[in-house]
Design brief:
Length: 231
């Protein structure tokens, strides 16, 4: 059975356009004015310019003062070469600020990054409505560790939307702590979700269960998470 990490790596290489990463490349991003502390994530958009093919665009994040960085992987925008978008989990009420930065990695392993951003978390912060594709990405996040022995639930963030993790060794697996927490207490995003369904995530050659969250009751194919390996 095909190893999940290799399968997803091939998917990334097949879908990311050849736009950036060499000498003179750059990553630009305008941060939002705030992050909400419930319901839905804020969409993060970055523009990557240069000449080399981009292998990954990575969104590193943490709740200010609470942990080391975690990461998610950003997706290329359809029809807009050099533009990438993604999400981080929703912060808990009481977290004051979220820190993040965006890094592009080219085919030669060279890296270029934004400065670090520090954004206020605010109850009532308005987040734009999401498309159906954006909702599926925001509700099916794969988070990655940057250090060994990090917690499966990023300190300062809600479990809602997190379905899997990539550990410090680059191994992808379901996020069982979030799954169990949501099974005990229900969705913790504090906004309506119509239903949940199970999907199979491949980890280390074995099929394991994960929760895929959607907002309707149509028979949709489970979305393959893009975040797949430690960058």
């Amino acid at each position: 059975m095909t190893d999940l990490k290799h399968l997803f790596a091939a998917l990334i290489l097949a879908t990311i356009p050849a736009t950036a990463g060499a000498q003179g490349s750059s990553v630009t991003h305008t941060p939002p004015g705030c992050f909400p502390d419930r319901c839905r994530s804020m969409k993060i958009v970055a523009e990557v310019t240069g000449t080399e093919r981009v292998d990954q665009v990575v969104l590193y994040f943490n709740a200010d003062g609470l942990s080391e960085d975690y990461y998610t992987t950003m997706r290329p925008s359809n029809g807009n070469a050099g533009s990438y978008w993604g999400y981080i989990p929703v912060a808990l009420e009481g977290v004051e600020k979220v820190n993040y930065r965006i890094e592009a990695i080219d085919a030669s392993g060279r890296r270029v990054a934004t400065e670090g951003f520090k954004v206020e978390v605010r109850t009532g912060c308005a987040a734009p409505e999401l498309t159906e594709e954006e909702k599926q990405i925001a509700r099916n996040l794969v988070i990655g560790y940057t250090k060994p022995d990090q917690k499966a639930i990023p300190p300062g963030f809600r479990c809602g939307g997190i379905v899997a993790l990539v550990n410090a060794q680059g191994e992808m697996m379901p996020n069982e702590e979030c799954r169990e927490k949501l099974a005990r207490n229900g969705d913790d995003l504090l906004c309506p979700i119509a239903w949940k369904k199970s999907a199979l995530v491949m980890a280390g050659g074995a099929a394991v269960g994960a929760v895929i969250i959607t907002e309707n009751d149509q028979d949709e194919d489970p979305l393959v998470p893009l975040s797949t390996a430690r960058p």
